[in-house]
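Re: beginner question about structure tokens

> Can someone show what the tokenized structure looks like for a real chain? I only ever see the sequence side.

Sure, here's an example I had lying around. Input first:
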Amino acid sequence: MTIIIIVNYKGNEDTKECVDSIISQKWSDYKILIVDNSIDPFYFQDLYKSVGCLDEVICIKSPKNEGFAAGNNFGIEYLEKNSISYDYLWFLNNDTLVLKDSLTNFVERMRRESLNNSGIHILGGKLYRFSEGNILQGVGGRYSKYRAVAKHIGDGVVDTGQFDNDVCIDYPIGASMFVSKKFIDSVGGMYEGFFLYFEELDWVLRGERLGFKVGYEYSVRVIHKEGRSTDNSNRFKSFIADSCQVRNRIIITKKYYRKYLLSVLFFVELTLIKRLLYGEIKRFYMLNKVLCRALFKEHY
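And the corresponding structure tokens:
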């Protein structure tokens, strides 16, 4: 049994389309658990009426919105409290569309890894940009501990089959992560202190400390309407997204790569200076406050 956890925040239409794409899959041994993070009860009521009546779907309401990780963890806790058994969890963004046989391919790959005792218990796949044909958002991520910057492998590249092999990734892209129950039982849920960004990398790094590995399955294909909850343009991204990036680059470095902290501080400050050059003076000072707080006051 696979449980597909989808966190919804005021994205009902996207969530409904995502559910429709999952239901069209051939694989039948699954349930969809929708966690509604919206504060306004209208969104939950609307979801419950439209997809909550389906046999494959369970809709639950989170008491408050505490971010991506907390929403997913709330779903995991619901499964445990209600003794709902599963073999795998697929964490899927609500603004995604699952393409043919992707669920089947994830399950079959994870079963092979278990038989081979490879240590791989968390998988990613191909993500495509919405309305851009065969252009990739990425197949996984690579992380620079010197700069505390993550980069999607294959971002903006036309998929010609060049990634149809065992690509080495540092982490799966958070919009689509397939995880075994053994990983959940051993590592636990996602760290909730980030709110946005770095959750998947932190999860993988925690797993690596316990001997778990990450893998990539190229036959899994998901379309992602990237950035529906935040404006991801480099210059004008939302302050929430901006501050989370600055803060979390420091937090994850303090947590795993402390000897690179000076290097990371240099590159973070360089990013903030660019804001100043763009004339965003107020944001420059506000983000420096976020940086100082993360550096001296925040603990993980």
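Each token stands for a local structural state, so reading them left to right follows the chain. Confidence is low (pLDDT under 50) at residues 229-236.
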